[in-house]
């Protein structure tokens, strides 16, 4: 097997590690590319290509995350990870851990960890790397990595929300929700939302959004029922699609350009949180990006009664 073939066989794993550490599709892709460049220029033979490449992409991701933290502190409004439509790495033995770790809620919890804690948690708890491999990847002793893993696990378990595990039930609920949304059905929407539901968006100051969020089933249902039919009238579309391993959707304008992605957190048969990524800088990997301000203006015009 050539070096290129070895690398391509591990590309999905490398991206999945980097994305969970960084919460950014574009930065994860850059980290994988930099890993390839370092691998290509390395003349030293490696006992395990998987271990070597995983360590390299982890170290690169840690460095990127440290610099990204400063940018995120100055971010306008709520920060969400870039939406991930498909996780390229699959492992049936780790399917539950992989799916849970890529959810928006889990990635936001990971933001609370230090870069080292985050990397150790991802390698150990998500991908089941042994501590010798984890220690090599992050440049710490095995004992230190065990302590980092304990702290990270404690933080994650303390804040981890408990979402509906049954995929079929979640998808069925999401289907009913999006159908009620298309119809502008206030009552239909309200019965699918938890009493304390929250609808929050990440626009980064570069697209229209709902201020700091909309809270409570009645208010969320009314806002959705009044705003979505006009969006359809101007040619907007809603495409149900799994996003970050959760029920979600991609919203497009009449030219099929991407306006936003949504994810739905589901618990006890109700939608707990609607998270929208609207920042155009975070949507380029989904497809050509729409002018959200123009679509918002047209939808607002469409809401006005005709004379």
From TrEMBL:
It holds the Pfam family Sigma70_r4_2. Keywords: Sigma factor, Transcription, Transcription regulation. Residues 105-156 form the RNA polymerase sigma factor 70 region 4 type domain. Residues 9-69 form the RNA polymerase sigma-70 region domain. Belongs to the sigma-70 factor family. ECF subfamily. Interacts transiently with the RNA polymerase catalytic core formed by RpoA, RpoB, RpoC and RpoZ (2 alpha, 1 beta, 1 beta' and 1 omega subunit) to form the RNA polymerase holoenzyme that can initiate transcription. PANTHER family: ECF RNA POLYMERASE SIGMA FACTOR SIGJ, SIGMA 19 FACTOR. This is RNA polymerase sigma-70 factor. It comes from Streptomyces iconiensis.
């Amino acid at each position: 097997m050539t070096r290129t073939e070895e690398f391509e066989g591990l590309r999905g794993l490398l991206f999945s590690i980097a994305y969970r550490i960084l919460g950014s599709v574009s930065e994860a892709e850059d980290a994988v590319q930099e890993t390839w460049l370092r691998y290509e220029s390395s003349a030293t033979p490696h006992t395990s290509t998987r271990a070597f490449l995983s360590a390299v992409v982890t170290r690169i991701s840690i460095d990127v995350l440290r610099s990204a933290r400063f940018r995120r502190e100055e971010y306008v409004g709520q920060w969400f990870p870039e939406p991930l439509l498909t996780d390229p790495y699959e492992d049936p033995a780790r399917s539950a851990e992989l799916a849970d770790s890529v959810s928006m809620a889990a990635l936001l919890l990971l933001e609370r960890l230090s870069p080292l804690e985050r990397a150790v948690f991802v390698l150990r708890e998500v991908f089941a790397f042994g501590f010798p491999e984890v220690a090599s990847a992050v440049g710490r002793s095995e004992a230190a990595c065990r302590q980092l893993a304990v702290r990270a696990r404690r933080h994650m378990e303390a804040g981890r929300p408990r979402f509906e595990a049954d995929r079929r039930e979640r998808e069925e609920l999401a289907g009913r929700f999006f159908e009620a949304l298309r119809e502008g059905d206030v009552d239909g929407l309200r019965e699918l939302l938890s009493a304390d539901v929250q609808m929050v968006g990440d626009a980064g100051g570069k697209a229209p959004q709902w201020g700091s969020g909309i809270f409570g089933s009645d208010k969320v249902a009314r806002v959705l029922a009044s705003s979505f039919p006009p969006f359809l009238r101007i040619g907007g579309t809603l495409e149900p699609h799994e996003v970050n391993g959760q029920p979600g959707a991609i919203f497009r304008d009449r030219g099929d350009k991407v306006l936003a992605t949504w994810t739905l957190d589901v618990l006890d048969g109700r939608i707990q949180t609607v998270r929208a990524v609207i920042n155009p800088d975070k949507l380029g990997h989904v497809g050509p990006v729409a002018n959200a301000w123009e679509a918002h203006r047209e939808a607002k015009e469409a809401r006005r009664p005709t004379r």
